[in-house]
Amino acid sequence: MLLAIIILSCLALFLVNLLTGFENISLLDFFYSKDETKRLIISYRLYKTLAVVFAGISLPVSGFLLQELFKNPLAEPSILGISSASALAVAFVVFLGIPQSFVHFWWLSGWTLIFSSFTGAFVISLLLLSLSKEIKEVSTFIIVGFLISSFCGAIISVLQFYSQSETLKQYVFWSFGSFEGLSEAQIVVYFTCVITGLFLAFLSVKKLIGFLLGEEYAKVLGVNIAKLKMLIILSVCLLTGSTTAMLGPIVFIGIIIPHFCRQIWNPASLWSQILLNIFSGIGFMLIVSLIMAHTQLPVNILSSVIGIPVILFMILKNKLKNSSY
């Protein structure tokens, strides 16, 4: 029942996003208008809204999988440095001018950015996976993620310092996060990555149920732990990498939505939780998109304003819980 209400809300928000903006259009215009200007507005809003939906799927699922894998409620792509590593890889591509060489092949440019972003996320994810065997404390693991983010940020600053003004302007605008400006070919590329990442996430859920009962118990059930971890890492890298490449390094969504879902439906199974994360994430991002349309604020500012209090609340809650024992 709860999931059905959220899905219906998502459909309503999707329509509202399509029909509202600087120039409002009606549902009849969307299907029957022959006005070229309105058709351009409709295609622009459709691509933008689809990008919002893909981000709403990718970031919460990535956060949910990382939290279950590392058994850490604060694990999330931006907090662990995965988004920063993706942004660094994109920075190398942008400042070296690689996409400009494919200016007549937008689909190839999209794949170039996503491949670089995926590579950055994959390298750091493997590093985190190896460190997680040695670091058991939640706070220490989060500090490691912060150090990775800071290191990536420092290298990005060096690249910015030596870059040309026009390239620097483009990168800074991208780093704020935006759902706008994607072409039809880029939407297709983004969709392909999200569907593939989501498929890998669904493949990992059944095995993850056994893993959460303990690695030894999971082995008895026939779960290949190494294969499971690689499935999750590949899924997270595809979802986070494609979103970062196309929309910018959007922060904290991967912790806000999973935390919200656990609060409203705590005893739910992993299957129910991942579906709840998907549709809650879509609904949340569609609301953020509407706020952006009326305030012109970048998505990273809005996600930070909402996300930082949530993280502080979670840290304080964990402190109080531990001190009560």
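That was protein one. Protein two is written in the same sequence-then-structure order:
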Amino acid sequence: MKRRVLLAAAAVGIVAAPLGVLAQAYPTKPISIIVPFAAGGPTDALARILGARMSEALGQPVIIDNVAGAGGTIGVNKAAKAAPDGYTVLFAHMGTLAVNIALYKTLPYDSKKDLEPVGLGGTNPMVLVVKKDLPAKNFAEFMAYVKANQKKAQYGMAGIGAASHLGGLMLNGMMKVDVLEIPYKGTAPALNDLVSGQFDYMVDQAVNVLPQIKSGNIRALGVSTLKRLPQLPDVPTIDEAGLKGYEVTIWNGFFVPKGTPKDIITKLNGALVAALSDEKIRVRLTELAVDLPAAKDATPEAMRDQLKASIDKWVPTIKAAGIQPQ
């Protein structure tokens, strides 16, 4: 009888050991970071910059896997269903994990139950930009123009659930206007049409629109943060320009499948903190108007709180706007 107990205990040890060994030895092979959007966008760019530095800290290659489609849900679902071994990491923004809850009737994943947070990777401010020949020269004139021309005014965005959709949704809702919404398949085509004057305005991430602003192809009338951007010191915040309380920023965060060992999450978070603490990284991303968190704000716990706060803010906002889930 004693022999059987010992054999059973040994068998349990054989099964349990690999998990403990995995966490201790991790990582021993390349790590895949799933970005649920096409290459070239702000989330992809940030993932590549941070991922390269995290690779150094982890001692293994980090490979970016762009899995685009359905507002980011395909990529998020792939990450959520992956093995919880630390070799598949998700880097997604607020829209895919919080806003999509209200935009889709059903989702193949639960942001809060199927994923474990690793940490915040950065926050992107937004900018209200208009075609260069729009009569309005400042935000007050812009708001008056849109209110007076609701039947012909148009705003563009990169697709349902995109950052530019959220920025415009909040702006129009607070201005209490009903204008024609033009969805595009991505930021690039939307921005190209704004430059050519095909629609009137757009609220998009600063990293996307800064080059066109500096080239004089479009004009900036306000920024979405409560403080002015160093990259656009002469452009007022939308809040100070007259629309009190307007604030929209897009956070990007790292997550892993539920069940990933805590030790692995700790190692990934350590690599993230190393990247965020790298002065060269901070300088480079500041130039792109990305707001990088301090180490104390990049913890898994802080990321979990940020996700909950975003869900609590955006789900009621979208429902109040009368947007029907897809």
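The chain has a mean pLDDT of 90. Keep this in mind for the problem set.
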